[in-house]
Structures are given as C-alpha cells and as structure tokens.
Design brief:
Helix content: under 10%
CATH class: Mainly Beta
CATH superfamily: YVTN repeat-like/Quinoprotein amine dehydrogenase
Shape: globular
Largest sheet: 5 strands, mixed
Number of strands: 35
Structural class: mainly beta
CATH topology: Methylamine Dehydrogenase, Chain H
Length: about 400
C-alpha cells in the first residue's frame, strides 16, 4: 500500500530556473541559428500528428521502438503503434480517465505508460488492448523500463517500484526521499543484465536487483553546496548510459561521472551541469550542458574530445549518435546535425514549430523525433559528398 501523501515538490520550468539563477533576473536569450553548411541533411520518410505531448509541461513522453514498430503516446490518452519503415498505423487506443505523462516503454509483450494520476497502465503490444492498471501512489512523469519478469517505475515521490509485467502486481519498492525543490525532469530507469540503475533528484544513482528489489549499491554523484534550494539542485539528468560494465550519469549543477556498474565506485568525473542526460557510442560520451554547449568526452578516460558552443540557450534535447552524426533537438523544433568525430556543425532540419524536448530515437538507419505539439517525423540521412 502506498500513502497518498508525499513530499510536495516545487516544480520549476527551466526558463524560470535560469531567471532565478541569473544575477539580473533575466532569462538568457537563445543564440541565433548558426550558418547552415548543408554538409548533411535529413530526408523526411514520413510524419504523423500523433497528439500533443502536453505542451511545455515537463512530461516524459517519448517514442519507443520494438519489433520494427515505433510506439508513441499523447498526454490526452492516445497511444499508437506505427511501422518504422513506412509509418503505417498498426493500432491505436485511447486510454480512458488518464493524463499520460511517462512512456511508452515496450517489452515482455506489453506497452507500459505512467499517468499524472499515479497509475501505471499496460496495453498489449500486439494490438493495444488494455491489460492492467496499477496505482503507485504519486505521478509517474518518466518512462517505465521493462525487462524479463519486471516493469520498473520511478515516481515523483522518489520511489522505484517493481511490477509484474503479466499482472501489474507490486513486487517491491525502494525509496529515495526527494528534495523540496526539483527540476521534475525525466530520469527514467535503465535495466542491464537483470540490474536496474536509476538516478534521483537528490543526486544519487542506485543499483537494484530487478527481481528481488535488493539495493546493491548507492552512489552520491553530486551534492548541493548552496545556501538556498535553487543552489542545491543536483538532479541526475534524464538519460543514463551503459557500456562495457560501466555506467554513465550526469547531474544538474554537479558532474558527469563514469561509475563501475558492479561496485558503484566512481571511475572518473568532470564538473558539468546538465538536465537532459547523456548518450554513448563506442568511443565517446555525448552531453549538452545547461547553457547549450554540446560536449564529447572520451568514454574510457573522460578527457574532453570536443565542444560546440554556437547553440547556446536553445534548450537542447539529449544528443543521439546517428551514423557519422550526433543529433539534438531544440526548443524551436530544429534538429541540429554535428559531426560526432570533431563537433563540426553540418546542417539542420525543422520538424515543427514546437519544442523537441525528448531525445530522438534511432533504429535501422531511421531517426525519429517527436515535438511537444505531437508531430512524429522519421528521417533518413543524406551526406553531401566531396571535400569539406
């Protein structure tokens, strides 16, 4: 049983936060778009209006891909599956009496979503039919994570909860007390080899056995050292990364860290502030900071590789590798294309006039991005040949 009482969180938009942190009280102006060299372009394969993603509310609604299909959800309750190759609608379902706020996650034959009413809803992945609904006590504004035998859910109250994928029955709960002030940004769990890794608004990352809920380790990645609640914000950013036995995490007003996934020991760290999280390839960690600079660090040593500074304060999404590129969305609906080997700006495309807050997803040489206005667009890459 969960109590309906949980810590009242003061939620701030990022623009409000920047204003509060500024000595002048003014929100920094976004940089102008850099010159477009048209060295790379994204060719539109298909697009759909899938329903609004909650406007500028900080919801964790992002596309998810499995079995050649992309699954999307709208804040108003619509959930749909499309073929990645051609955008054909496979099924759609309207979840009744729910304001969707996290997901969808796909696995174990189900599509799982969180709601602002504090429910986790599961649909059958093959046809969208309702399967179960479970109340977890407080809003779920981040995507669940699914692995064999477990659905992992993080709540706004700071609980990590394990549910049975077949029935929705609660298996275990791990609690981390949230601070009084949080960014309320998507910090979804990551499941690797039967271990759940999760970041929290108190700057901690924890590892939990997926089937038993046993906490294997806790690591404080960042500690607030200010004299007021804003200065003490150290939320772990939205996307964690895993490669070759190491876990990667970044916090707001804290640091980027590589962590030994087995022991929780920090292998290296760099001072950095990010609220969107990070992504990886075989060689680098990619992360954009709160001022809109895009960074690449060596995966093994943490040594800075490159930084791109001409997208300042454009409120970037996490950047994702796509072929030879790294791609990030911005608040004005643009996808920015950079050479991931050196950070050179190669081009851009506009998906729509609403923010791309969640990172794009990549599968089978297709990149898909979702705007807050509900435009889902799929692209293929075209590179300009010849000497740069």
């Amino acid at each position: 049983m969960h109590s309906n009482r949980f810590t009242l969180l003061l939620v701030m938009s990022f623009a409000t936060l920047l204003s509060a942190c500024s000595s002048t009280g003014n929100v920094p102006s976004p940089s102008s778009l850099p010159p477009n060299p048209h060295k790379a372009r994204l060719v539109l394969s298909w697009s759909h209006d899938v329903g609004g993603g909650g406007g500028n509310q900080l919801l964790g609604l992002a596309p998810s891909v499995a079995g050649g299909e992309v699954f999307v959800a709208a804040a108003g309750g619509r959930v749909a599956a499309y073929k990645v190759t051609n955008g054909r609608l496979v099924w759609q379902h309207n979840v009744r009496h729910a304001r969707l706020s996290g997901g969808p996650a796909v696995g174990a034959g189900i599509v799982a979503l969180g709601t602002r009413e504090g429910n986790v809803v599961a649909l059958e992945a093959s046809n969208g039919r309702p399967k179960w609904r479970h109340f977890v006590g407080s809003p779920v504004i981040t995507s669940p994570a699914i692995a064999p035998g477990i659905v992992a859910v993080k709540t706004l109250a700071g609980n990590l909860i394990g549910l049975d994928p077949a029935s929705g029955a609660e298996l275990w709960v791990v609690s981390e007390s949230p601070p009084s002030l949080t960014l309320r940004y998507d910090i979804h769990p990551l499941i690797v080899k039967g271990i759940i890794y999760a970041g929290f608004a108190n700057g901690k990352v924890i590892a939990v056995h997926a089937l038993t809920g046993k906490v294997l380790w806790r690591r404080q990645v960042a500690v607030g050292r200010g004299s007021n609640p804003i200065a003490n914000l150290v939320d772990v950013g939205g996307v964690l990364g895993y490669a070759a036995g190491d876990l990667y995490a970044v916090t707001y007003q804290g640091r980027l860290a590589a962590i030994d996934a087995a022991s929780g020991q920090i292998l290296w760290s760099r001072k950095l502030s990010s609220y969107t999280g990070l992504t990886l390839d075989a060689a680098r960690v990619y992360v954009d900071d709160t001022e809109g600079r895009m960074h690449a660090f060596d995966l093994v040593t943490g040594v800075p590789d490159w930084v791109y500074t001409k997208l300042a304060y454009r409120r970037l999404s996490a950047a994702v590798p796509f072929g030879p590129l790294v791609v990030a969305g911005d608040f004005w609906g643009w996808l920015h294309l950079l050479d991931r080997s050196n950070g050179r700006y190669l081009g851009r495309v506009r998906v729509g006039d609403r923010a791309i807050r969640m990172p794009p997803v990549v599968v089978n040489h297709v990149l898909m991005a979702l705007t807050n206005g509900g435009t889902l667009a799929a692209y293929r890459l075209s590179l300009r040949t010849g000497k740069r």
